[in-house]
Amino acid sequence: MYLMSKVERADDDLLNFALTYIVWMVYTMVVMLTSVIFVHYVGPQAIGSGIPEMKTILRGVQLKECLSFRTLLAKMVGLALAIGSGFPIGKEGPFVHVGSIVANLISRFVRNFKSAYANESRSCEMLAAGCAAGVACTFSAPIGGVLFSIEVTAVYFAVRDYWRGFFAAACGSAIFSLLRLYTHSSEVTVVAFYQTTFKSRAFYPEELFIFALMGLFCGITGAIFIWIHRQMVLFLRRNSFMKIIFQRNWIVYPIVICAFYATLTHPIGFGRYITGEVVFSRTLKDFFMNCTWSADPSRFEACSGSVAVRWSADESIFAELTVFVIGFYFLSIVASTLPV
Question: What pLDDT, on a 0 to 100 scale, did the predictor assign at position 229?
């Protein structure tokens, strides 16, 4: 609070830049390092998205402590702190892992009363339903949750598990929507997670070709994303110098990444080109707004002034969007290598 008050009273540009940078750096580093340390000592099995572990378990391989209560605690606390630090870390994988752990703990509890749940096949059914509920709680999409649970199993998916997965996903989606209603004072009823409105003629036939090109481009960049991430992870594991850092001073890598990320996203520095001063929830709301960013402010379809200011720092809106996409494309790769 002392530093923030100094920042507000600072008249000198250099002093203002230095103080805001220190506050930004300290906040990012403290929150993320707390997440890393908590996960490291409480449940190191919680490191990563959790989806590869679930695929392995559903194929019949036992992973020690992967579905334990300690891992659940580490996953929940670590994820909350990691997202709160501002890093571009997704929730889908961790939610799938959390849903599966909860399903496993429930089945172990019920096993004391109903011996049928001691069957290994029944445990797999519970885990598949947990995966579906995890995705449903992420996007409030029960059908997507069921489809994803089918995708996770990859090898086979028993027909009898369809209704179980859909029931778990529907319950998870309903609870998620109700909790969002009661925790957000602006909501008066249960609504879609991201509301959209489309005109009777939402697009023109000529635009279908552009949509196809966008899908092709996103597919290619997604494949490149996975390749770059794989090469980076292999480098961190095989490089002799990085091995020494991870084995003897494992906290050094998160510190370096936090300092790098905080420097790039500092709002007064480079961060003004990638909307570093706002959280991702605000960014997503901007993307889903029913208005035209590039329209003249006098036109009715133009966005509000705050959106225009937020996305046109020193350049045009299109230039800043390009920098935003490229910047967070690579920052997401780096962030996903952190041990949280």
Answer: 92
Structure tokens at 337: 């290598």
Rg of the chain, C-alpha, whole Å: 23
Q: Contact at 8 Å (CB) between 83 and 30? A: no
Distance from chain centroid for Cα 121: 31
CA distance 55 to 63: 11
Helix (H) or strand (E) holding 285: helix 280-287
Cα dihedral 146, 102, 78, 81, rounded to 10, equals 70
Q: What is the mean pLDDT of the chain?
A: 79
Decide: helix, strand or coil at residue 117: helix
**pTM of this structure:** 0.79
- Cα-Cα-Cα-Cα dihedral sign, residues 17, 23, 28, 29: positive
> Low-confidence residues of the chain, pLDDT below 70?
1-12, 112-121, 152-159, 184-202, 275-276, 295-298, 300-301, 304-305, 313-315
| Cα(170)–Cα(167) distance, integer angstroms | 5
Q: Go through the chain and tell me how many residues it has.
A: 340
| Nearest to 161, CA basis, from 176, 170, 150, 175 | 150
177: phi then psi, degrees, rounded to nearest 5: -65, -40
**Rounded distance, CA 156 to CA 79, Å?**
30
Q: Which whole-number Å values give the CA distances from 252 to 33, 234, 238, in the listed order?
A: 10, 18, 17
- Distance CA(222)–CA(228), nearest Å, equals 10
Residue 5: which H helix or E strand, with range?
helix 2-9
